[in-house]
Amino acid sequence: MPAHPNTSRVAWLLVVGLAPWPFAPARAGDEGSKAAYARADGLYESTRDTVFRASVRPEWSGDGRRLWYRNDLADGVKEYILVDVTKGERKPAFDHARLAEALAKAAGKPVDATKLALDRLAFAEDGATTFAFEGKSYRFEPSGELKEEPAPPADRPASGGPDGDRRRRRPRPDEGTKESPRGEDSPDGKLSILVRDHNLILREKDGGRETPMSFEGSDVDAYEPRVYWSPDSKRFVALRTRKGSDRKVSMVASSPKDQLQPKLITHDYMKPGDQVPVSKPHLFDVEARKEVPIDPDLAPNPWSVEGFAWDADSSRFSFLYNQRGHQVMKLIAVDAKTGAARAIVDERPETFFCYSSKLFERRMEKSKELIWMSERDGWNHLYLIDLADGRVKNPITRGEWVVLGVDRVDEEKRQVWFRAGGIRAGQDPYHVHFARVDFDGNNLVVLTAGDGTHEVEFSPDRESFVDTYSRVDLPPAIELRRSADGSLACELERADVSRLEATGWKPPQRFVAKGRDGETDIHGIICRPRGYQADAKYPVIEAIYAGPQGSFVPRRFAPHHRHQTLAELGFIVVQVDGMGTNDRSKAFHDVCWKNLGDAGFPDRILWMKAAAERDPAMDLSRVGVFGGSAGGQNALGALLFHGDFYKAAVADCGCHDNRMDKIWWNEQWMGWPVGPHYAEQSNVTNAHKLTGKLLLTVGELDRNVDPASTMQVVDALIKADKDFDLVVFPNSDHGAGESPYGDRRRRDFFVRHLLGVEPRSR
Question: What average pLDDT does the segment 174-196 reach?
Fold first, then answer.
């Protein structure tokens, strides 16, 4: 995300107006100067609107045989492209000059052929082009004849395209089994369920007779009104939920906009170790008017139960069980007549089951099979499982690469379409590629090929797709490919970055070094100032976020990465994905388990040392670090646990003690019950170890991370008699350090403490 503009940047823009930004390279010795700040503040504007042919928004014909798109080029130039998908031929959609000439005659005024703004564009089989222009509808014949046509009805939607109104959306990923219809009424419409005094009442639609179905519900352990009916209406499942802790977090709005006096703001916020609401399923036999007890042993301590679905013959139902602590994940099936339960799938990893990003299941009724995502072999893959007995029929995917997500399950063709990382040997393992494979694991087709991270848009019939790929150091390439085998039909566009390069822009450098084990590749990027001099010395600043829920180093091309703005002041800025982050092997991810204090620092430090061996301009005697949220925790942790390497840190809205932060995030990685390792890794507990320079920032109304987490660090630092800086943002929520003021304070902080000069003093 571009850095927020600040006052000095606005003033500078007023001076230069709309003129192209003059590139003034850095001069040795001007780091942190007014000129350096001006370059940094102007970097975003200097790179904005300088890249062309970098994206294609295809408009497909209904049969998928053709597509068209518009290129918006420099100086307002527009060109329309028509592609014959079957032949793989790309050409101008029409003769722009002849059409402009015809429109000029019809409109009685000049029309610029390079800037045609057409709406509702469509192409007939006979080669004619229909479109709307300045409120009128036209048909342009291949002969060059232009005919005005009746306007479409007012309620007719536009055909889309850059000027159309149609909302565009990609197909939603297949998210697995849908729950049975929720609600009170039975499928046959004869019965309904209602909740009264926390218990279930069965009501007959004919006559309205009511029968109590449960009696043990209470205000602390009540039945929910949603039920899951069997298809034959003879049974239903209801959830009874025992209340959890009623923890509240209270914050003071010191400077509310609507009154003088402060306000107390309170909201629900559960933390690790709190008692969670516990929902358990109960099975009821409608004809017998009684409950059928379910064997409780398979689901004794749920974090959640969800995904309820009945078999089509009403013989059983199944649901997902996620056990508190996230080390047990099951698909449980229950016999409708007896209540006997069995685990179809029973995952019990030694560390954690990553339910937040690696849970996928698709129950297929016709074939009595299940597609299940698992890291059981050390890599995130898909398995085909027999729904009757839980037997693994075969792995669907396998290898030292990971499935990142499932986009489509085609039960008729028995195929899975998915996204993968690391599937192309020799490429960055974080590159997103698209692939397809048969249920039996055969006929794997990697649809995308280019050395970059990919985005695709399929034709309506999925027979072809537009593939856009790029890297931080590679401008986008856009291709039309065939879905059958991933073969190239034709190249559509290659991004034009000539104007961007004229500004003095240089892309971030990708860099790879070995991690702590001496074997695993650690990936990151290096951003240098535009006036970089190889014989100079630059302090190094690491942008850090080590949250285990994802990977965070930028992969896609962008004309402006926010780290480049900070680098322009006279720094080299890096970002690294160390061990403990996501999207690699299970072993790579497991480093975070009960170990968030690690934050991948052993890998990060080795990576920077390896980079400095290649580039001696990186001065590792002056290393800073900054981050927000989990990154705020990491940034302070750098000084507390690795103060021999890191010398200055800016920590925004940090979850500095994992007992203070939200329950789902912290228990997933730090485990449950809350053990001594929580305190041992706390920045509060270790605040007395502080060395180096520290700036803490926090919003007083942070609803994401309890702001008291930062203030407890402050308390511990004061007790330890440590020097530090603190900025509290009144009325501000999570991420306040990314505000214009917070960004300016962060830059000034690093200029003072790593460059050793007063910001903008010369």
Answer: 71
Report yes or no: 459 and 85 within 8 Å, Cβ to Cβ: yes
- Percent of residues, the chain, with pLDDT higher than 90: 91
Residues 626, 628, 634, 639: is their CA dihedral positive or negative? positive
Q: CA torsion angle for 631, 633, 639, 644 (degrees, to 10)?
A: -70
Q: Which long-range contacts (CB under 8 A, 24 or more apart) does 137-141 make?
A: 138/103, 138/106, 140/94, 140/99, 140/102
- What pLDDT, in 10s, does the model give residues 330-377? 999 999 999 999 999 999 999 999 999 999 999 999 999 999 999 999
Residues 730 and 188: their CA atoms lie apart, in Å, by 57
Q: How far is CA 534 from CA 343, 501, 521, in A?
A: 62, 20, 26
Contact residues for 330 (Cβ-Cβ < 8 A; gap 6+):
298, 299, 320, 321, 323, 343, 344, 345, 346, 347
In eight-state DSSP terms, residue 167 is P
- The token duo for 627 is 């981050």
Q: Which long-range contacts (CB under 8 A, 24 or more apart) does 21-28 make?
A: 21/45, 21/46, 21/503, 23/502, 23/503, 23/504, 23/530, 25/504, 25/530, 25/531, 26/529, 26/530, 26/531, 26/532, 26/533, 26/568, 26/570, 27/531, 28/533, 28/536
**Cα–Cα distance for residue pair 419/404, rounded to 1 Å:** 5
Please give the full DSSP string across 363-424, using - where no structure is assigned: EETTTTEEEEEE-TTSS-EEEEEETTT--EEEESS-SSSEEEEEEEEETTTTEEEEEEES-S
Give the angle 250-255-258 at the CA atoms, nearest 5°.
100
Read off the tokens for 250.
Answer: 């209270």
For the chain, domains (ranges, CATH) are: 15-19+22-50+504-755 (3.40.50.1820), 59-149 (no CATH)
Do the beta carbons of residue 526 and residue 511 sit within 8 Å? Answer: yes
What stretches of 84-198 show up as alpha helix (H) in DSSP? 96-107
Spell 492-525 as b/e; 16+ CB within 10 A means b.
bbebbbebbeebbbebbbbbebebbeeebebbbb
Query: If you ran DSSP here, which 8-state letter would residue 185 be given?
Result: B
Query: Pick from 593, 594, 688, 595: which is nearest to 636 by CA?
Result: 688
721 and 688 in contact (C-beta within 8 Å)? no
- pLDDT at site 227: 97
CA distances for 200 relative to 182, 229, 245, 304, 610, angstroms: 15, 14, 24, 21, 66
**pLDDT at res. 508:** 98
Q: Which helix (H) or strand (E) holds 362?
A: strand 361-364
Residue 266 has a CB neighbour count (10 Å cut-off) of 9
3-state secondary structure 62-85: CCCCEEEEEEECHHHCEEEEEEEC
Instruction: Count CA atoms closer than 13 A to 689's CA, side-chain side.
Output: 17
Residue 25 has pLDDT above 70, yes or no: no
Specify the residue for token string 């669907």. 396
Amino acid at site 323: Q
Q: How far apart are CA 636 and CA 656, in angstroms?
A: 8
In whole angstroms, what is the distance from residue 184 CA to residue 197 CA? 16
Q: Do 36 and 30 meet the contact criterion of CB atoms below 8 Å apart? A: yes
Q: Sheet of 290-292: strands edge to edge?
A: 182-183, 221-229, 235-242, 278-285, 290-292
- Other C-beta atoms lying within 10 Å of the C-beta of residue 268: 9
Residues 6+ apart with CB under 8 A from 536: 28, 617
Res 7 pLDDT > 90: no
CA neighbor of 125 nearest in space, from 80, 70, 59, 62? 62
- CA-CA distance, 262 to 128, in Å (whole number)? 67
Is 410 buried (19+), middle (13-18) or exposed (0-12) by CB count in 10 A? middle
Spatial distance between the Cα atoms of 686 and 713, rounded to a whole number of angstroms: 9
Phi-psi region of 273 (alpha: psi -120 to 50; beta: other; left: phi over 0): left
Bridging pattern class, strands 248-253 and 263-268: antiparallel
